[in-house]
Structures are given as C-alpha cells and as structure tokens.
Amino acid sequence: MTYFITLIVAVCSILYELILAQSLSLLMGNTVLRYSVTIGLYLFSLGAGALLCERWGWSKGSARPRLIRVELLLGLAGGASVLLLGLFAVAERIIHLYLGYHWGEPGSFYQTVFLILLHLPIILIGLLSGCEIPLLVNLKSEEDPLSNPLNKILAVDYFGALLGSILFPIYLLPQWGLYATAFATAFLNGLACLALTLTYRPILKKATYAGVALVILMGVGILQSQSLQQATLRYYYYFFLIYEPTFDLWRPLKIGDDIQRIPSRFQRVELIPYGSLLPPDLLQEDLGAKFRAEPDFPRYWVLRLNRRAQWSSNLEEYYHEPFAHFPIQVRGSVPRKVLILGGGDGLLARELLKYPQVHITQVELDPTMIETAKHHPIFRAMNHGSFDDPRVTIVQQDALIYLSQNQESFDAIYADFPVPVDYDLSRLYSATFLELVRQHLSDNGFAVMDVPFETGSREWSILMATAKAAQWHDLQPFGEKKSGESFILGWSDNGERTNKTAMWHDWNIPLYMLNATSMAQAVDYGARISAGIDPHAPANTLDRPRLPLLGEQKLVAIW
Length: 559
Description:
CATH class of the largest domain: Alpha Beta
Strand content: 5-15%
Oligomer: single chain
C-alpha cells in the first residue's frame, strides 16, 4: 500500500508543478520563462521541504499521522492554487484601476509584491511535497524494519511523475481545464489521506473525517469549477467597465452575459460579449459604415487569445482591410494564389475572397479555431462563412513545418499570428521562418505580416532587421494611425512596383474604411515608422530569440 500511495502523491506533485507553471504562463506570458522559474522554484522548495521536515519534527515518531497532515494541507493548498492565482490577477487589475498606472511600472514596489504573491503557492506546495518522500520512506521502514525502501520509493515517485506529466497536456488540460484539474489533483490527495487512515491500524477517526471532508470539498470544487472560473473571468474583464456611484463588489456577477471559453490544446480562447453590459439605446448607436451596410454584424464582441486582445468586432476592419488590400493596391494587380499563415478566425480570408480570382490555402495549427470559425454564430456572422468557400483549402499544420515540407509558390503570403510572448510564437517571427516565406513567393510576389508592437519600439526595429536578414526585398512598413495597427510588406525581388505612390485602384469590392485617402495615410504612417527604425538592431533568430523577452519587460523586470 505504501508504494501505491507513493504513486498517487507523485502524480499529484508533478501535476501541481505543471498546473502552477501553466497558470502563470497564461497570466503573464512567456511560457519558457514561467516554466523555468516554476520548475526551479518548485525543486528548490522540494529540497527545502525535505530538510525542514526533520526540523519541524514531522519525521520523528510515527510517520503515518504526519503524512496524513501533509496530504491534507497539500490538498487544501493545491486545490485552491489556481483560484488563488486568478484572484491575485483580479486584485492586481482592480488595484491597477484605482491606484493608477504608475504603481505598475517595471521594478516598482507594487509590481514586485504582485510577482512575489503569484509565486508563493509554488513555494508552499513545494515545501509540503518535499516532506512526502522522507515520510513515505519512514512509513515503509515502520512496516518492514529490515527493508531498505528508499530506492523503490524513489523509483515509484519518478514513475508517477512521468505518468502525471503525460496526463496533463494530453488529457487533463484540454479536457478538464486548470480549475477542475487542480481540484481533481487535490481530490487524489484526499484519497491518499483516506488510504493512510483506513488501511493501517489503528484507524485514525479524526484524520478519516478530515480526509472525507477534503474529498467532498474537492468533489464540489470539480463540479463547480466552471462557475468559479466564470466568476474570476467576469471580475477580470467586467469590473473595470462598471462605473457606479457606489462601490458594489458583487456587480460583475450580476450583469452581462457569460464570457465564452472555447477549449483548445494550443491556446486559451475567450470571446467576451461586452455589448451585454450596455443599455439597448447605446448598443444600437451608429458605429459606422460597416454596421449601416450590415445591420446584423456582431457588436461589441472581443476575441482574446491567452488573455491578449486579437480584435474587437466594432473595429476589426481597421486591421483586416489594410492588411489584406494595401499590398494588392501597391502591387497593382490581384494575386491568384494566396497563402494565409495563421488567421484562423477567417476574417482575413473574408477580405481576400472579395476578389473573385483569388484562391486561398489557409494554414492554421489549431483545429479548434478552424471549427469555431466555421460553426460559432459570432465568428460566422463576422467572417461570412469564408472557410466554407470552395476557393479555400484548409491545412491544419504548424506554419513553419508546412513551409519546410511544401515546395509550392504563391503570389501572396499573409502571416497573421498572435503577439510573440513565448518562444513557440517567436519562431514565427524568426529569420529562418521569414526566409522560408520568401522562398515560397513567385515572381513579383509579396509577403505581408502583422507587427503587434508599438510604433517606435525596439521590437519594431528587431522585426525589420529580421525581415532584412531573411532577404525580404523593398521593405515597406505601413499602418492605420487611428487604431495603431502596423504591418511590414516585402517582395520576392527588387522589381518595380506599380503603385508605390499609393495611387488608388478601384476594383469594385465592398470596403468600409480603406479608400484613396486612408491608403495615402497608411503610406505616410509607414514613413513615420521607418524614420524610427534602429538600423543596428539585431535580428530575431531560432537559436537566439529576442522578441518575447522584450515584450515582457514590465512583467519580468525584477527577475
């Protein structure tokens, strides 16, 4: 029985480590940094717990009641860990709103305290988990004084760690989510506690009652995990929009529609119905030409991937119209073979399908995004069912792998990716990736990518240097000043462009914001961007990624 209990607690230990690392990466970005810090801090805490176990007196006397105490504390701390991190994030957002931005400057006292609080659960759970191995060894030695159980205990512990590390990404995270997984892991701690109380003699009644209480509490947590998650999401996204003369802490739970979480193996997809917070008269106000032409177009919906805004349904044309049509205007002719990398919401494809001669190959890694774009009513209303068009071929694959394995050439390639806040996404902004993009361009073909950084930032200069290193020719930044959206346009060669001066071609397609005037403004905005580029900036490469850490300066300053 001791070895079976060892297996259970080993699975729980590695699951807590992965749960905490994933929670922090979702809250703060930069997955590699979050996992590295979490693993290092957790291992340190395991060692400290093993040492302190004797000092606390927990390794003296009978091991069973002490191990029961550890499992009870671990179950409570681990089960509440994700909820606690979510509440920390909500509290940080509320304090940020009421105390002002200066409290959150990099390295400030406020930011330092916030980061320390976020990492306290790692230390607490690590310390408690560190006590388990010494106590399990003592427990087995009490059963069989002549045995030397350390080797077998460690072997079972490592096997349990392997089992938990496989279960977490393949099944638990995509199917259960972080909240339910944390409660389920704590539920296992409760079962381990009951096994310790009921399978050994004498039976410890108080410990049995405590174990039953923990199992029941965590079982309720599993059943209510979606409600708890929805509550934290409502506070996180709705609280700052509530302007009331009196402070009502519970108001985010009373108003608005639920925030829609779309389960995905690859990213955290959230669709937020901000329009449900508005009175009907404000919801029906004139929002511009798009809504006059399409009265049923969704209003006040926001898509967030990994907590970062991707688009607002009210303003998405300020992103997608320049992105899709500006390069075609510069080219002076409509490309026939188009490759879209990313853009799994179908909105960029919607714009390009306005040209009858266009045929699109859509490469998207996340099958959840593809299915959502095809079937979710809000997405379909926005993308006009673009993925059902027979001119669109969908390939579910990583963009870099697709380019590495495919030899087909395209007249135009669009790269529409999320903000590169971790190293997986940084690959898609690397010199290697952009060079593969260039190699797949036909003669007089163009490539264009979104630049999700502030104008004049260091990141902009790095991305321009990366495009130059990838031999994108005739680079031309452009953008939309009102929304701050910006892009890089490059070519397969140094040939003459028919429309470098932004002369307007009227192809008789419906556009709501891009016209001759906004086209010229996009060129002028690009010239301002070019003037702020640092010519000595380094390129972003696979072996030396530079973009995620720069994008994380405010969050990692004290590290």
